[in-house]
Write a structure and sequence with these properties.
The protein is α/β, with parallel strands linked by helices and 165 residues long. Helices cover 35% and strands 19% of the residues. The protein has helices at residues 26-31, 42-49, 58-67, 98-103, 114-128, 147-159; strands spanning 2-4, 17-21, 70-74, 76-80, 90-94, 108-112, 132-135. It has a four-stranded parallel β-sheet with strand order 3-2-6-7, with helices on both faces.
Length: 165
């Protein structure tokens, strides 16, 4: 059965970085916001990269990103998917990324994981004209990456620098 992406992008006119995931997990869809699975490390990584506390609710999550000029969306507008597994995605239809580009002066695109990067290159690169950086997935399925290693990789992807603390 085809699933529609359930929520809009997080973006305002100050955003220069666009983070793109693939498609919201079952837990994210249930919680009505991005990276809603408690084991997904996205919000812990973002908080650490920006030197802030982990946001507790949707409003705080949006505020964290926007304070740092980060827009957030997914590559897929609709698809067939079994549960939350990226490997099961079929018939993916891309989002209208021009919507975000019209609002914000995006200069950097970071994809959260391999599927997001693959679909970005296939469907959205021609629209944005910005080569994406592929960051390792923050999904709990990517257990090979420790939180510290993930954070270091994401810090470099977002800021072009390694941890210097």
């Amino acid at each position: 059965m085809t699933q529609q992406h359930p929520f809009p992008p997080v973006v305002d006119g100050t955003c220069t970085i666009l983070i793109l995931g693939s498609f919201p997990s079952v837990k994210s869809r249930e919680n009505a916001f991005y990276y809603g699975h408690p084991q997904n490390r996205f919000w812990r990584v973002m908080a650490t990269v920006f030197g802030e506390t982990v946001p507790a609710d949707v409003a705080a999550k949006k505020a964290l990103l926007l304070r740092h000029g980060v827009a957030l969306w997914d590559v897929i507008a609709s698809c067939e998917i079994n549960g939350s597994a990226d490997a099961s995605v079929k018939n993916a239809v891309p989002v209208d990324v021009a919507r975000v580009m019209a609002i914000a002066p995006i200069r950097r695109v970071v994809c959260n994981g391999a599927l997001a990067a693959k679909l970005y290159r296939r469907h959205l690169l021609g629209v944005t004209g910005i080569e994406a950086i592929t960051a390792p997935s923050t999904s709990p399925a990517n257990a090979a990456w420790s939180l510290q290693r993930l954070t270091e990789a994401w810090r470099a992807a977002i800021t072009d620098r390694e941890d210097d603390t």
